[in-house]
Amino acid sequence: MEQETILVVEDEDDIAELIRYNLESEKYRVVVAATGEKGLDAARRSQPDLVLLDLMLPGMNGLEVCKALKAEPATASIPVVMVTARGDEADIVMGLELGAEDYVTKPFSTKVLTARLKTVLRRRKTRIPTEDQAIRIHDLEIHPGRHQVVAGDDEVALTNTEFRILHFLARRPGWVFTRYQIVDGIRGDNYPVTERAVDVQIVALRRKLGGFGGLIETVRGVGYRFKE
Questions:
Q1: Quick one: pLDDT band at residue 87, thresholds 50, 70, 90?
Q2: How confident is the model over 200-217, as a mean pLDDT?
Q3: Residue 84 pairs with which residues in a beta bridge?
Q4: Averaged over 117-132, what is the pLDDT?
Q5: pLDDT tens track for 143-181
Q6: Distance (Å, rounded) from C-alpha 197 to C-alpha 89?
């Protein structure tokens, strides 16, 4: 199997070396960059399988790096995992809306970090179901063509907006989405919904799904995800 490359953009040498040691122990190839500018250049040159990006960087900060990566066709598909200070919810939301796939907060366990990175790399290889493809996960079946949801043995009646939110989240289990991303993902002429209304729709959706409602997880201060 080809060795996967992870680019670590981190300005604190001790943290960078700790991450490098643990990832190399897991047989990953690791490239380290100490600034946002060097990280962006390294991503362009090495085309890594994943970028682990600290948001608090000297000069070009992590959000600017993420935005630049996602704006360039050559690097746009590389998954980005942000490293943030605990409580920086605004930065987490901004990073996700710029295209980052996940985040970890400092201080973190290296075992947890490695597990999260493995999950993101695994997701990258998993084909996302098409818009009209049926989804079967956790004994929940979603049939877009029939606009039908079956939870266990019971059919669940949902409104158009509730169905679209469920389908949007379930197509990418484990991915965290902000309210804005959910609105943007389900937006259409017949589906007027605001960021504030997303919370109301989620409450109704969980209630209708009964015991399956817990599959829709709240990521505090950030948004929602469908349980992986």
A1: low
A2: 94
A3: 105
A4: 84
A5: 998 999 999 989 999 998 899 999 999 998 988 999 989
A6: 20
Q: ω before 107 within 30° of 0 (cis)?
A: yes
Residue whose structure tokens are 């709240």: 218
- Terminal Cα distance for the chain, rounded: 25
Question: What value does the mean pLDDT take over residues 184-197?
Answer: 71
SS (H, E, C) the chain: CCCCEEEEECCCHHHHHHHHHHHHHCCCEEEEECCHHHHHHHHHHHCCCEEEEECCCCCCCHHHHHHHHHHCCCCCCCCEEEEEECCCHHHHHHHHHHCCCEEEEECCCHHHHHHHHHHHHHHHHCCCCCCCCCEEECCEEEECCCCEEEECCEEECCCHHHHHHHHHHHCCCCCCEEHHHHHHHHCCCCCCCCHHHHHHHHHHHHHHHHHHHHHEEEECCCEEEECC
* Domains with residue ranges and CATH for the chain: 5-125 (3.40.50.2300), 135-226 (1.10.10.10)
Mean pLDDT of the chain: 90
Q: Which amino acid is at 128?
A: I
Provide φ and ψ at 31, rounded to 5°: -115, 130
Contact status, residue 100 vs residue 53, Cβ threshold 8 Å: yes
